[in-house]
Amino acid sequence: MSTATTAEPREQAAAAPPAPRLTPAVAVRHGGLLAWRSLLKIKRNPEEILGLTFMPLMFVALFVFVFGQAMMGDWQAYRDFIIPGIAAQSVIFATIGTGVALNTDIEKGIFDRFRSLPIARSAPLVGAILGDLVRYGLTVIAVLVVAALIGYRPEGGVLGVVAAGAVVMLFAFALCWLSAFMGLLLRTPMAVNIFGSVWMFPLTFGASTFVDPDDMPSWMGAFAKVNPVTHVTDTMRGLMEGGPVAVPLMWTLVWVAVLIGVFFPLATRAYKRRA
Amino acid sequence: MTDAIRAEGLVKRFKGTTALDGVDLVARAGAVLGVLGPNGSGKTTTVRILATLLTPDGGHATVGGHDVVRAPHEVRRTIGLTGQYAAVDQDLTGTQNLVLIARLLGHSRAGARARAAELLARFSLSDAADRPAKTYSGGMRRRLDLAASLVGRPTLLYLDEPTTGLDPHSRNELWDVVRGLVDDGVTVLLTTQYLEEADQLADDIVVLDHGKVISRGTPDELKARAGAQVLQVQPLHAGELERVGGIVEQVTGSEVRTGERTASASVTDPSVMPEVVRRLDDAGISVSELNLRKPSLDEVFLALTGRPAEDTTGGADGAAPAERTHA
Ligand SMILES: Nc1ncnc2c1ncn2[C@@H]1O[C@H](COP(=O)(O)OP(=O)(O)O)[C@@H](O)[C@H]1O
Ligand SMILES: [Mg+2]
What we know:
Region (Disordered) (chain B): 308-327
Number of helices of chain A: 11
GO molecular function, one term (chain B): ATP binding
Strand content of chain A: under 5%
Keywords (chain B): Antibiotic resistance, ATP-binding, Cell membrane, Membrane, Nucleotide-binding, Translocase, Transport
Oligomer: heterodimer
Shape of chain B: elongated
Protein name (chain B): ATP-binding cassette domain-containing protein
Structural class of chain B: alpha/beta
Strand content of chain B: 25-35%
Membrane topology (chain B): Peripheral membrane protein
Number of strands of chain A: 0
CATH topology of the largest domain in chain B: Rossmann fold
Strand order of the largest sheet of chain B: 6-7-8-3-9-10
Number of strands of chain B: 15
Distance between the termini of chain B: 52 Å
Bound molecules: adenosine-5'-diphosphate, magnesium ion
Order of helices and strands of chain A: HHHHHHHHHHH
CATH class of the largest domain in chain B: Alpha Beta
Shape of chain A: elongated
Helix content of chain B: 25-40%
Radius of gyration of chain A: 22 Å
Largest sheet of chain B: 6 strands, mixed
């Protein structure tokens, strides 16, 4: 070690290129590079994706094979009913990971390193979220593969499934700003995880995921009908299984706009302050 | 421009605490500035402001002539930061960690790989290049972290407590690295809780306490102020402690602190040692321990402020390796 330090020549042959000016194109490139980092992490820990899909897949097994027959008198019909909702639920759960990962990076000082570099200020945040979108995509695919294994054949065909996937990804993109905001606000990754999970159960169960809101007690049904998860699930159901799409899609888009409108500025502000 | 850093009157408040209360400091280009202070004295806050990660509530600072608040991007182009805790991505390999930063700094794919390989070799990490950083030892992780801060060839490097928590071997390695960087012309700002570390590496030292600079100067000036060494005597029989204290006071001429079983005093001239031994011998006092050692940060603080450093975790460790024990 000591030999290496003293023998180091003053300047190496390949001098570092001057740090690039911060044009929007450069900012996008930086975000892309940091997203690449997120992807490397997924590759390193593939079990994380399995972990994300584990609970939803347990729900598939539980609801389809245990309750299915009782719910609809036909477990296959019930399977077809809940798969779109389960796919939505798994992605919504996955968004917690965005906040947890951000918080971990800050706590470990990794963000400090990035922010001390002459790169776009927002690049670490943008990169983390771009990388997470890939994670969400993999989560949906994992659920759909399992669904296919237990005989799920969507009426909407490939096109319907892809469209449904796009809708849920858009919603997840909006929701992950809420998660990012929590990740930047709370102190520890553990707190983000707990606080994030608390929302998830009422949000994903008090929706049309497993039961039609019309069959719920009136107050619960009222909650479920305004719950964005219901709109996302209904849109996906319509695209995958046939049924009305326009109205739930419209409401989904309204929610996407609201979530981004509120939490994107909050998250970026918290980011500027904290990180 | 001969000053790499100029900071005047830096103030930083967090809810309820004033972390920095008017800090002035200057780092000469090409030199090592040591910022010495106990836990909570404001070292990290100072570094974070100078690295553009925090905005000061008062005062201003320039780094390489650029204002840290008004021209943060320019500042970031000249600095490298190694934080208090190794900020490497544990899931990525050593190579991936460095390639990522090189790419962010505008290197081509091939250029980034070359730069990563070069730095890994320089820090004896080539063998571990393709292993995830979570498999590294603490010392290796620190080295990777330091390598990461050097990717962009900074002319000014911040090292925030770089050796805290390292074993003596890794610490010596890191000291060599710092010396090598200084030989290459890099300016270094180093924070530490160890007087010995500042003594070994720094050209100038600033002593922080409760967000204020309480002393500054070269290591020699500081030691002259604080007493270069500490003479410590432990009599065989605790009952003789008072008499021992009297003798030490007479010979050294400085104030004696008596603990439960030892008496100690600052000394500037080590030749008092034989004199103390002779006087103790004349008085017929047997001693179980008699030694001359470098003052700990606590003792420096006591000498400079008249009260011990608060909340110093392990500040006394710094003195241990330098201890010279006489029979
Ligand atoms: N983000 C923060 N929020 C609140 N207090 C802080 C924060 N960072 C530092 N402090 C407080 O500021 C003081 C100085 O801290 P710091 O600069 O980390 O000291 P050092 O690095 O010398 O140990 C301490 O009292 C610490 O508790
Ligand atoms: Mg600190």
